Amino acid sequence: MLKFLQSGSAFRTNAKRVVQTCRLMVGIHDYDAYLLHMHGHHPEIEPKTRDEFYRYCLEARFPGAGKISKCPC
Fold first, then answer.
1. Where do the domains of the chain lie?
2. CA Rg, the chain, in Å?
3. Please, are residues 57 and 29 in contact by the beta-carbon 8 Å criterion?
């Protein structure tokens, strides 16, 4: 494996940050950060699954997007 692709390398760390920033810009929150928050601050509550979390974020950004009668635009 190439050195710059190894876990913990500066390139890989920066690439993860760029991906996270792009996701936040389009309204997709970081699921891993959500899990860390839930386990650290709310251990008594079971966290949402990845699919539930994605749907929650989508609904928060585009209310009614799952309904055919409404356009999210």
1. 28-65
2. 16
3. yes
Dmax (CA) for the chain in angstroms is 51
The residue with tokens 């928060």 is 60
Q: What is the pLDDT averaged over residues 5-19?
A: 82
In this structure, what token pair is assigned to residue 36?
């860390």
- Look at residue 24 and tell me whether its pLDDT is greater than 70: yes
CA distance 20 to 25: 9
- As a whole number of angstroms, the distance between CA 72 and CA 40 comes to 34
* Strand ranges inside the chain, DSSP E: none
Determine if the pTM surpasses 0.85: no
What interhelical angle do 31-41 and 50-61 show, nearest 10?
110
What is the chain's mean pLDDT, rounded?
80
